[in-house]
Amino acid sequence: MSEVRKIKPSLSKGTRDFLPSEVAKRNYIFNTIKSVLRKYGFEEIETPAIEKLETLTGKYGEEGDKLLFKILNSGDYLSEIRSKKTEIASLTSQEITPMISEKGLRYDLTVPLARYVVQHQDDLAFPFKRFHIGPVWRADRPQKGRYQEFYQCDADVIGSNSLLNEVELTKIYLEVYEKLGIQVSLRMNSRKILEALAEYASCKELLTEITVVIDKLDKIGIEGVKNELSKLNLSAEQQQKISSLLQTKSLEELTAVFENIEIGKKGIEELNFVFKNTTAQNLVFDITLARGLNYYTGVIWEVVFSQSTIGSLGGGGRYDNLTEMFGGQNMSGVGISFGIERIYDVLEELQLFPENITQGVKVLFVPREESVEEFTFQQVQMLRDAGIPAEIFLGNVKKQKQFNYVEQKHIAYIVEIGGNEVESGRFRLRNSQTRDTEQDLTISDIISRLS
Amino acid sequence: MSEVRKIKPSLSKGTRDFLPSEVAKRNYIFNTIKSVLRKYGFEEIETPAIEKLETLTGKYGEEGDKLLFKILNSGDYLSEIRSKKTEIASLTSQEITPMISEKGLRYDLTVPLARYVVQHQDDLAFPFKRFHIGPVWRADRPQKGRYQEFYQCDADVIGSNSLLNEVELTKIYLEVYEKLGIQVSLRMNSRKILEALAEYASCKELLTEITVVIDKLDKIGIEGVKNELSKLNLSAEQQQKISSLLQTKSLEELTAVFENIEIGKKGIEELNFVFKNTTAQNLVFDITLARGLNYYTGVIWEVVFSQSTIGSLGGGGRYDNLTEMFGGQNMSGVGISFGIERIYDVLEELQLFPENITQGVKVLFVPREESVEEFTFQQVQMLRDAGIPAEIFLGNVKKQKQFNYVEQKHIAYIVEIGGNEVESGRFRLRNSQTRDTEQDLTISDIISRLS
Predict the structure, then answer these.
(1) What's the gap in Å between the CA of B438 and the closest CA on chain A?
(2) Within a domain: residue A357?
(3) Which domain holds residue B424?
(4) Interface residue A249 vs chain B (CB under 8 A)
């Protein structure tokens, strides 16, 4: 630790520290999701934070490439450029970047999954059902609720076309949010139905553009949608066809409309299969759901929190070309993600975190003077040896500091130790909440009391 | 996902993917350590991967600074330099780096802890007992067992001078390695004893140099040590004094030698206190243990695996100036770390991982044909609803693929479903290991059988 300079410490923008209570709450979310996923046969994997830029670049569009955090090469990177007779003075930032940076931080967990599956395909059991919880990094402008380093949680099935995977993932969604106590509605649609909609309005070639417009429906309303569609040179009739379809509320209504559109019939059939095998109140067909179109090829989900407009708590869909970008054989995949950061905010706002998850040890032993510390420690150790989480307070002797300690660490009981206790071997157990006490307990009494 | 280029995927050097079985084994290590630490009142924290370079630089020595991964600034970073009329052509790599990079990846968990404690001191309960498990990054040359991205696991107590913290940490070390089934010996020494040794040989001012030499004893032997000491211009008498002390095996022997050396008496007293309050066979005083001297100020530990020379499985010590580098008030700290990557290697080599940790779901239902898939799914769902981890196999119909799946995911039971089973509602449960079967079970039978 040479050259110690004193600076006022601060975080890099868009990053966070987590206090012990926050880590406990985040672990509660992670563990709830993990326990459900494991019950369904999903296994956890991990990939590195650092990936080669050749793995990451070109996967997220031009805008995404700009948001990749790039790591500077080690060593004398400029002299390597100079040795190739390249004039550094004339280079732009964009030109020099690939010369001085070969790796970056992962932008999501999906591209690493694609690389992983192609690279390890001989070591994996297919259908490969994996989940992955971990941080990703984006050089986005930080703002409330948006960070440069944040967690994603994805569950995917790779290598099975069966629609029962969609059913399983729907059930997983419902079970996780129910366990967390968050009332959600699960909006579902299919890319196939959106394709059929474009075909029905005779503008198949504009599928991408149309879905971008549909995605804005919430914000701009149906008249706004028509207006945007007219900018795409769609006729009044075409606009009318689309806007009337967007008001469809059930798959039954659609059946007649798509009578002669194969892809539409297929989309309806698939969603019907999922609905039939899931049977849940909060499952909603929503033809206006159009997320991530270029990526998805079948069923798509979005989890919406019923009690406010905080935005999506999760989403996913079926995709067909995941591993293709790395030269893998074309394996169909389907996956969902959990919006962990927003789930945290909802649980916090509605005070839905269970109280016990932030609980520290069960009991704090407080020695009244230094001369009884060793004795106190021995008592505490007996509790620990019996498997009971316990602490000895070795801090400031001020009562207020001790109270703060108990309160901050949510410790349920306190035992104070002085000369009397050492002599008698009898202790007073005080409930830190109710202040009720039990007297004359031996250490065995306390052990059986707290076991 | 525009511009899809097909490239053979590979990892960035010195990084790793983890297969499901590896994640399960790593989680087993983490959970074992966490459970012990929680019992002792330690709480988990998290800090970001990305820190400002001003936080990281100058803390790890010149060599360490070179090993920091630095993140390239976003946007048009070169034009910012040019706008300041700086001639880029004349800059060296070292000069340009601080102009184009403001953040880096954390190098360890200790400097982030110091920043964290100073920044959040009003929100923390002191003594602050925290643990942190997470990846750190170093631009080291990768080699067998050494990675650029690897995990550290640290437990520290900040803000208490009591030696009972040393006792607790010693007990934690012993308990963790015992739970993991790894036979270790815990070597202990004190920086105070090393200081006394230098004073005894009348060369206090050479403390750092002498301990560097002592650290090499294992490799160069006692004659080598003497030789190196002579290079430091120590007289034959001084060399003799040091080399004879290095052969001391017990604190008792030292007591007479340090009779008039205050710091030595203090060091002996402290270690005696820890030994008395710990009482363990595998706790060894080792005067030749000299790790991390510039950093530590009191007791130091090293965990050595008894059955091979794999190197240290952990280490730690008391330090007194942790928060000073960030202008915090001088708080004493003491901490230990667990060498997670090496612990993994030892457990793997000795086959000490419990079998059940890599177990997947309890039972796999295999539909013999597509027409019975929905029925099969319903049966599986009944098990899941009863809390039993279960799967339906939706993959390749080849028997061999199914066997592989069961084997790779360590699934205990198999139930095959065909027309007969659908009709009768009676199933055959086959143990995938012993191949024993039970016939004529209803789904309720299976549920109570596997609960």
Answers:
(1) 23
(2) no
(3) 363-450
(4) no
Q: Are residues A37 and A145 in the same domain?
A: yes
Spatial contact of A449 and A436, defined as CB atoms under 8 Å apart: no
Query: Hey, what are A138's tokens?
Result: 């984006």
Chain-chain contact of B7 with A405 (C-beta, under 8 angstroms) = no
Q: Are residues B126 and B58 in the same domain?
A: yes
CA–CA separation, A411 vs A353, rounded Å? Answer: 17
- Report the pLDDT value the prediction gives residue A7, as an integer from 0 to 100: 61
Is the sign of the CA dihedral B250, B252, B253, B255 positive or negative?
positive
Please report the number of interchain residue pairs, chain A to chain B, with beta-carbon separation below 8 angstroms.
Answer: 329
Asked, for residue B355, whether it belongs to a domain, the answer is no
CB atoms within 10 A of CB B205: 9
How far is the first Cα of chain A from the last one, in angstroms, to the nearest whole number? 45
> Of B349, B376, B406, which marks where a domain is finished?
B349
DSSP state of A326: G
Q: What is the mean pLDDT of residues B273-295?
A: 87
Shared domain for A384 and A242, answered yes or no, is: no
The pairing of beta strand B128-137 with beta strand B101-105: unpaired
Question: For residue A302, what are the β-bridge partners?
Answer: A187, A315
Q: What CATH number corresponds to the domain at position B399?
A: 3.40.50.800
Among B11, B16, B1, smallest CA distance to B344 is for B16
Q: Which two tokens stand for residue A109?
A: 């967990």
pLDDT of residue B1: 43
HSE-CB for B215 with a 13 A CA cutoff: 12
**Which residue shows structure tokens 């003594």?**
B127
Q: Do A285 and A390 belong together in one domain?
A: no
Question: Mean pLDDT over residues A198-204, rounded?
Answer: 94
Q: How many domains does chain A have?
A: 2
- Which run of H or of E encompasses A312? strand A312-319
| Chain B partners within 8 Å of A67 (Cβ) | 74
Per-residue pLDDT tens over the stretch B164-198? 999 999 999 999 999 999 999 999 999 999 999 99
pLDDT digits (tens, 9 = 90+) for B380-409: 999 999 999 999 999 877 889 899 999 999
pTM comes to: 0.95
- Collect all residues of chain B within an 8 Å Cβ-Cβ radius of residue A408: 124-125
Those residues whose C-beta lies under 8 Å from the C-beta of residue A438, and which sit 6 or more positions away, are A428, A429, A449
With b for 16 or more beta-carbon neighbours within 10 A and e for fewer, the A139-160 pattern comes to beeeeeeebbbbbbbbbbbbbb
Q: Which ranges constitute the DSSP H helices of A332-398?
A: 340-349, 373-385
Query: What is the chain A residue with the closest CA to B386?
Result: A39
Q: Quote the CA–CA distance of B448 and A278 in Å, as a whole number.
A: 24
Residue that is written with structure tokens 């319903």 in the block: B378
Report the candidate in B126, B365, B93, B256 with the shortest Cα–Cα distance to residue A398: B126
What is the interface pTM, i.e. ipTM, of the complex?
0.94
